[in-house]
Amino acid sequence: MATAVAIATAAGKGEIVPNPIDPRAHTLVAHSVARAAMDSGVAQQQLDDDYFESANAKDYVWE
Q: 10, 22, 37, 59: which has the fewest C-beta neighbours closer than 10 Å?
């Protein structure tokens, strides 16, 4: 549910879904998934505030 809210938040006025290349949408989704995983106890690691203050989700993508 948190991810759905993040996606809806990232959508601009008059849009149903956000632009798929909008990095803001990626960050919002990444943060909401991470927070939901930590809150539910399924996260493999706890993330600190630095992660959630980051404006760039790409910093945390493992390739």
A: 59
Three-state DSSP class for residue 59:
helix
Report how many domains make up the chain.
Answer: 1
Alpha helices in the chain (DSSP H): 2-10, 23-40, 49-53
How far, in Å, are 13, 14, 30, 33, 50 from residue 60 at the CA level? 28, 30, 9, 13, 11
Residue 22 has pLDDT above 70, yes or no: yes
Domain that holds residue 23: 2-60
What span, in angstroms and rounded, lies between the C-alpha atoms of 45 and 17? 30
